[in-house]
Amino acid sequence: MQVWSDSRAVEDYKNLLAGKAPADTTDCASVIIGAGKVGTALADMGLGDDVVLRRGDAIPAEITDGEGNARSSFPIYVAVRERDLEAVLKACPDDKRADLVFLQGGCVEPLLKRYGACSKDQTQAVLWWTFEAGSARPIDGEVSLGLDSFGEPKVAGQTSVCGKWAGALKGRLARGGLPCETMFYNDWRRVMFERLIFQSAFNLVGALHGYPTVGYVARYYTQEVDDLIYELGRSLRSTIAVTMLLGIEERLMTYAQEMEDKTPTTMDPEDFEWRNGFFYRHVTTPARRAKFPDPCEQHSLYLEYGRDNGLLTIPELDS
């Protein structure tokens, strides 16, 4: 499927011109699944009437807000690791699935599609946050890059949300002093893949060279990571008809330099499926099976070099 033959590429633009913006929502009593750093931060920014669930707890049909009113419609913030997400999807009642708000850091799109939870109305967020050691207070990662040629501000690391409960999440984060941009789904999807490219490129280069933070990678291996960013972004256009916005290399390099020592590089085997594994499983593997050139050749070579030299432990590469 090519970009120019896919009407979805311009669907949001047509809706904007037609005034078909999604209905706005406001923050309210919510359900939060997960009591880790993200779930705790969301609860702290709420109004004190949220229901916080552990993994495996049943999602209630109704909750009561701070004024004693029963609510049957409310956001359900899913603040669990990617590896735990499928259990939440399986346990969610069908009539509550549209209220799920996905906050995962990696690309969970293939999993959500299997459960019918990836429509343009589903609420999904990219949180460009970091947490200092020992602190549950998120640090926003938005970085200013000055003005573009039209005099509009350019930013990197912009927390973004789309879907039914986008306004509710934006309002909650604003209460906590954290910026958030609401978007149409297709625009948000580009931001999600930009975050994925950041994770995949900087963490892989950092792991192979033994550099502990994304700031070190940006400073000492600029061209290497820049080439990876370009390759991964280009592969999306040719395989799933997603074209990354111009300037992605500048945005990600600036973000990495700004984060400096706040964001360590890591290649956790349990997170591989949701980060570099997306490109290896959904781009490289189908191309190789079809006897086509690998659109992510450098990325694949780096992964296999790391495996062969004992720098990476990724069972999927051996299958």
From TrEMBL:
This is 2-dehydropantoate 2-reductase. It comes from the Eukaryota. PANTHER family: NUCLEAR PROTEIN (PTHR34044).
